[in-house]
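Hey,
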Amino acid sequence: MSKAQGLMFGLATVALVGLATFYFTKPWLPELQSDRGAIDSAMAVTLLVTGAVFILTNLILAWFSWRYQDHEGAQALYWHDNPRLEWTWTLVTAAILFVFLFNALDLWAKVQRKAPGGAMVVEVTGQQFAWNVRYPGKDGAFGRTDTRLVDPETSNFIGLDKEDPASGDDLVLLNELYLPQGQPVRVVIRSMDVIHSFFLPNFRVKQDAVPGMTTQFWFTPTRRGNFELACAELCGVGHYIMRGRVVVETKAAFDAWLAQQSH
């Protein structure tokens, strides 16, 4: 590598490091609106460690490109291997990755733990290309559903059995999820057709909806407002329109809204 090439390579590397550092240190996630702050903390630590390694190694590479430029009479040095150096970087890297792994497993266990008592339950069923949101009503029980009862003409997209006594007060909404602020919410996820992915970016919630399976999770909304409900799994030609709205209100406002829907 000539002097000019070494200098240009070094400057280009420094510029790349600068741009990467600038963009990765800017806030790139939507503001957190739930109790899942541990997820943001884990991502921040991961980016900090990997970013520091990226910056250091690339700056060293840039310095070597500039410092050891080609010149007349220069001779390249070569050695076949260095077991001590290779073991060192391998073990240090493995130790860092194991720390990340165990922290991630602990975080996953906390996210997947059983919902606290008194958590509100809501069912969300994905279909091409919409989200069906169901509340159990005053009796606290969901009515029976059967895929053979699905009837788009009567807006019965989830096959709700109207003859089941428990289904009489069920409230079903399309692409709208209303939640109370400060109360744990357990969400039961289903799918009517293909794999979807229930995604609430502001709440750090993402859970696949798998045909033939029932999955669930829970979280606590912490702030009022309107937020996005999206599908994060390519589910067909209309995937881009499979989105909805999440409305978080105070507990009193939510209870008043829910009571109004039953009339």
